[in-house]
Every structure is written in C-alpha cells, then in structure tokens.
Write a structure and sequence with these properties.
Structural class: alpha/beta
Distance between the termini: 34 Å
Shape: elongated
Low-confidence stretches: 205-216
Helix content: 10-25%
Length: 320
C-alpha cells in the first residue's frame, strides 16, 4: 500500500501546523539534520523544531544527511547518527542524500567514480551504529550505481524521479520522490518534496532498529594481477567489527594450489587514519607462502595495503 511522506529542511520549509500536515495524510517525514562534517548551513538551520513538531503529532520522523566530498564517509555517518540520537529522530531510518551540490555553491562534489564506495562505507557505518541504513539518489544515478547491488544488508532505497516511476534499470526501491513542487497544508514554503512508499522498510517502528548481530558478507571480490616482484594493492573495507580479507589462490581439487601467493605486510587503517595493527608479519611463526585460502581479520579497518608476489593472478575477497 502506498503512503504519503515528505522531506523538509528548515532553510526552505517552515511548518506552522503539524496537525494539519498529519490530517493531509502525511505518514512519514524526513528532516535534513546534517551536511558534510557538521550541521546544515553552518549550524543555522538545525532540524530540532521540525523533528519535535513531527513527533508531537505522532508522525514517524527520521533524519537525512547531505553527502560532501570530505570528511570521510564514516565521519559523516557518525555526525548524522549523533543528531538522530540527540533529537530522537528514530521513527524512520537514517538516510544518506547522495547528490551533487547546487551549481554555484563552490563546494566540490564527490566524483562519480567514488560515489559507490562512499555510499557503501557510509551505510555500513550507519549499520555499525545499530540502525538500518537508507540512501536517496535520483533516477539517473540509481541506474548508474544500482544501490540494490551494493551488498549492504537491509538497505532502504529512495529514488527521485518526477513525472514518472523510476526506471526498471534503476533496480529495486522502497520510496519514490515523485514531486518537488508539492503543497501541504500547515507548511509555509514555495514547495514541498512529496514521496510515496511502496514498502514499510523506511519505518523503524518508532525506535532505533535493534542492534544487529555481527555478520559477515561479501562486499567485493578483487582479481589481483600477477607480480614476480613484491608489490602492494590497496583494499577498501567496511570499517565494521567483522571487516576482513580472504586471500584466494587458485586452488586445485584437493584444496591446494601449485601457484602459491607469497604474502608480505598488511598495513590497515581506521577512519581516523590511525593504524589498527593485525599485521600478520608481526605474528610469531607467520608463513608467507599461501597455498590455500587464508583469512585475516581487520576489525575497524576502512582500507588496507596488502603486499604480495605471485606468478599468477589470484583473488581477494573483501568481507565485513
């Protein structure tokens, strides 16, 4: 069953009568809470009044975050979740708003080639805080990125396309933003974004989603090129407590390879750019010759430099 929802930002919308909003049939609200590394518009447009107003009449309300090129996606997710918790904006899932800055803003945009990785890392960080993550983007970007293929567990997808449903090529979605020119009684604004939900995935039942048990899921499988000289490859991880890599030589039917991978150091860093340890070369008795699949736990790592030499290509699974 479709349900009406709105998203609002205190810089552009002022709600004068929340009961009128509810009586109009609005069943959920997303409020802009954060932007980049802090509050919107230098802290001049917080979501306090909007969240409190929606909650006062029993409309489920959640927060969204406008993505910026810096700081790290993990740091930006932390900023959002801090505001969600401070304001009690837990009726709807925390959302990442993935779109470019308005023309003329002067702020750098996240390059298209980085948007997928940024989104996955941000959403996994939100999940690490115990919330079901969500993401918003337009139809064109959804067709390019296919968020339903991110591999982020329970991801709620919100796609904007005005005048038509999102394309089939955009993949699965839960919420459709179908207009940026709406009018809602009780809201003073030139326009209001209107949304319709096709599932209840955006709702958290009035509270934060239960803390999920640590799970391990495949995020990416990388083919690593052969190199007879010791070389290094950078791997991007989730930053979760279950982050790990699995080195996968090409094994035979007996589970052993005739073309081993010779491993060197694994230098791993967290979101604060501090090394997290877990370098196998520091472990007593470490054997660099790898003839079968070998797993390395790197809890909290967001990237790792993996040193190796190998006569043939091999694979590394990135899990978290």
């Amino acid at each position: 069953m479709m349900a009406l929802g709105i998203d609002v930002y205190s810089r552009f919308q002022s709600v004068t009568n929340w009961q009128a909003v509810k009586d109009h049939g609005v069943t959920f609200v997303f409020v802009k809470l954060t932007d980049g590394g802090g509050l919107p518009n230098g802290g001049r447009n917080t979501g306090d009044a909007l969240v409190a107003g929606a909650r006062s009449v029993g409309i489920p309300v959640g927060g969204y975050h406008f993505a910026q090129a810096s700081p790290s996606p993990e740091a930006q997710a932390d900023v959002l979740i801090a505001e969600v918790r401070r304001l009690g904006a837990t009726g709807c899932v925390p959302m990442l708003d993935l779109e470019d800055n308005p023309p003329g803003s002067g702020a750098p945009n996240i390059p298209d080639g980085r948007k997928r990785d940024f989104s996955i890392r941000f959403c996994n960080r939100v999940a690490g805080h115990g919330f079901r993550p969500g993401i918003y983007m337009n139809n064109s970007l959804a067709k390019m990125l296919r968020p339903d293929r991110f591999g982020v567990r329970d991801l709620v997808i919100w796609i904007a396309r005005y005048g038509a449903r999102p394309d089939a090529a955009a993949g699965h979605y839960d919420v459709h933003q179908y207009s940026d020119a709406g009018r809602v009684p009780g809201i003073r604004a030139s326009s209001v974004d209107l949304n319709e939900s096709y599932t209840n995935a955006h709702l958290t039942g009035g509270g934060a989603a239960p803390k999920r048990k640590a799970t391990t899921e495949l995020m990416e499988r990388r083919t690593i090129p052969a190199s007879m000289d010791t070389t290094s490859v950078r791997l991007l991880l989730s930053g979760s407590e279950t982050a790990a890599i699995i080195v996968r030589p090409r094994i035979d039917g007996d589970g052993i390879t005739d073309s081993p991978v010779y491993q060197g150091n694994i230098y791993a860093w967290g979101s604060d750019k501090v090394g997290i340890g877990y370098n196998p070369m520091d472990q007593p008795g470490f054997v660099s010759k790898t003839v079968s699949h070998r797993r390395y736990r790197l809890p909290g790592a967001v990237w790792a430099d993996f040193e190796y030499s190998s006569a043939v290509d091999f694979e590394i699974d990135i899990v978290g």
